[in-house]
Amino acid sequence: MRLASVGARFVARLIDFLLVLLLNVVVNGWFVYRYAQEIAPLYRAMNERMLEGQNWFENLPEASPQAGRLQIVILLIATALWFAYEVPATANTGQTIGKRIMGIKVVRMESTERLGFGRSFRRWNTLGLPTLLWLCCVGFILQIVDCVYLLFDRPLYQALHDKSAHTVVVELPRPGTAQPAPPAQPGGTT
């Protein structure tokens, strides 16, 4: 099988990101609204000081403890939604909706068997779990490094999450294109 192009993988990930974002808007929307209400006084005070030419950060009202709890709830729900979207789909078919649209698939390096839950979970761990560290920006940086790694990996163009699960992303044959004939078996028919 041919390896999937970096462009196809990027577009597939972008489609999946937008779908998970849409799920988050639906499921996390109320929590985000409540969080915005909790931190609004802080931003109003900063804006007033900026307009008056004062130091933005002196004597600011503190965000309520509820705001911190809401941040954690929002990140936990976002991570759980991403997990629920990606892991079962990849475990069963090797494809999320984005990969299906782009005609690519995640496969084991050693065989064409389906990935299974364990390997799919291991693949997602490297990319998905750092979402829980977004509050301190470390998670986002880890995710960028993970995804950019495939630009430098040769010859299989694996991201770190592919390396951890021993998977590669391949191009699926397009409908209507000829499949190459299997190689002849020694001493017999093909």
Automatic annotation (TrEMBL):
It holds the Pfam family RDD. Residues 3-165 form the RDD domain. It is found in: Cell membrane. Keywords: Cell membrane, Membrane, Transmembrane, Transmembrane helix. The keyword Cell membrane applies. It comes from the Bacteria. The chain crosses the membrane at residues 12-33, 67-85, 132-152. It is a multi-pass membrane protein. The keyword Cell membrane applies. InterPro entries: Pra-immunoreactive (IPR051791), RDD (IPR010432). This is RDD domain-containing protein. It comes from Phytohabitans aurantiacus. The lineage of its organism: Bacteria, Bacillati, Actinomycetota, Actinomycetes, Micromonosporales.
